[in-house]
Amino acid sequence: MGTIDISNNDFQRLSQLIYSESGINIHIGKMELLKSKIAKRMRTTQISSCHDYLNYLMNNQSEITEFIDTVTTNHSFFFRENKSIQNMIEVLSNENKTHARVFKIWCAACSTGDEPYSVAVQMIEKGLQFSILATDIAHSVLNTAMRGVYSHERVKNVPISILHKYFQKGTGRSTGYIRVKKEVMKYIEFKKFNLITDAIPDEKFDVVLCRNVMIYFDDPTTEKVINRLYHALKIGGFFIIGQAESLMSLRHHFKSVKNTPSTFIK
What we know:
It is built from 10 helices and 10 strands. By secondary structure, the protein is α/β, with parallel strands linked by helices.
């Protein structure tokens, strides 16, 4: 396969397609990244010409889905930015002492499942009853999440005691990998969901996590997403974002939680 050349016009068409389908803002500085994603899909579809692939893409909804899936797949790992999760679980644990109930949590950009599984094992450790809805726009990462198999590199931040209790160590051909135990997986429902276009679930959640995805959005899209997620929360529910993200300068109704970075309350 030769060098991929994209005209300015084609780049604009592609970036607009990505934006309308996923809310991700691809600027000209991401040209090389975009080329690598196109090359990957060209290999898969066995189309040798970039021009032919772009024509195929623009006229094939199933390929648009696959292309967006490729563009939006990002690296994740267990216990990432875990302090905000610990703070949230501590509050829920204190609430549970006075009013025991089943807590409902939505991981709204769950990627390969590292985040919901990380939340689940810590909730179990605290003896809390809960359910987790874990969603993502990319079906490839959801397939990984539902399998629950990961390399040891992905779980290096997990405390040894939790690793031994809730994960199975691979042997033979699976050496170097671990599998999440079924007793953890049963708490989580994985579903495909587009934060921009899909209808917000009717149920109200105690916690909505939407971390490290809004860094790819522009301000209008971020504002739209956070205000849609606001309606998914119970009054007093928590909204948790990534450490590199901010709600500053955006119009919303959340209130920040004192001395708890990245955490807001409805």
